[in-house]
Amino acid sequence: MWWIYALLSAAFAALTAIFAKIGVADIPSNLATGIRTIIILLVAWGIVLARGEYKGVTLTRHTLLFLVLSGLATGFSWIFYFKALQVGKVSQVAPVDKLSVALTIILAAVFLQEAITWKTAIGALLIISGTLVLIIK
Questions:
Q1: Model confidence band, residue 135 (pLDDT cutoffs 50, 70, 90)
Q2: pTM listed for this prediction
Q3: Would you give the end-to-end CA distance of the chain in angstroms?
Q4: Cα separation of 2 and 8, whole Å?
Q5: Can you list the pairs that 128-136 forms with residues at least 24 positions away whose Cβ atoms lie under 8 Å?
Q6: In whole angstroms, what is the distance from residue 36 CA to residue 57 CA?
Q7: How far is CA 136 from CA 75, 77, 92, in A?
Q8: What is the tens place of the pLDDT at every residue in 60-115?
Q9: Are 127 and 105 in contact (CB under 8 A)?
């Protein structure tokens, strides 16, 4: 079932790139990021409230620390992504942004001790190679 959610994520990420490129055409990229963030905030909290997922949950300092760090990383990612979309071609920016997949594989091995299989390593190397093809002139 996880792969259905992952495919839906990929589909919506593709739409995000197209809509964002059009959305940043006439305004500063940071303002576009701010507007997008408000929408995400409303949607996420709407789902949490509708599903009652806030009830009975205890947040530890550890959990909060890593959610704050994740939020900061997401925020910086979006700021740089929108700036890249504003000045670059979406057909180049979006694939290069997906270099994060290969970086995540490496970081998961280092920090989470996740095993890297040959299949995963080859996939990561192909992503890195594809990124180099897109950015080298």
A1: confident
A2: 0.83
A3: 40
A4: 10
A5: 128/99, 128/102, 130/95, 131/95, 131/96, 131/98, 131/99, 131/102, 134/92, 134/95, 134/96, 135/92, 135/96
A6: 27
A7: 27, 22, 11
A8: 999 999 999 999 999 999 999 999 999 999 989 998 999 999 999 999 999 999 99
A9: no
